[in-house]
Amino acid sequence: MKNPAESEQGCDGAPDWVIEIVSPSSRSMDYYKKLFQYRTAGVREYWVVDSDRKIVTVYNFEKDSMEEYLFADNIPAGIYEDFSIKIKVLYLHANMIFLSYTSRLNCCLESGKK
User: Residue 2: pLDDT band by 50, 70, 90 thresholds?
Assistant: First the structure.
């Protein structure tokens, strides 16, 4: 059975949960402009993951609340019962994957120089 929120072009409406990774060039957009846009669009929960500050800011629009967590914290998803994420674990895995990929890429580039 087709979900009534789905259309031929994709899904209609706002997602329940958005997780935004802040980059230096988009800092003000992620913290202010997107915050307003997502709230207005009907997103239920918005997380801003700031790797420079090692902080996750969680906006739960249903409860009209905002909380900050450290990467090491077990962060509850307020809109899903009994579900939480430890960003530090994801961050470490992402860095290991990136370093592994970079190492293989450098190896390939070095072997191509011969």
Answer: very low
User: Tokens in use for 39?
Assistant: 């709230």
Task: Measure the CA–CA gap between 109 and 90, rounded to whole angstroms.
Answer: 28
pTM over 0.85: no
Q: CA of 7: how far to CAs of 12, 15, 18, 26, 86, in Å?
A: 7, 14, 20, 30, 34
Burial 39-76 (b: 16+ CB within 10 A, else e): eeeebbbbbbbbeeeebbbbbbbeeeeeeebebebebb
Query: What are the C-alpha distances in Å from 36 to residues 32, 61, 80?
Result: 6, 11, 22
Mind listing the pLDDT tens digit for each residue in 41-70? 999 999 999 988 889 999 999 999 999 999
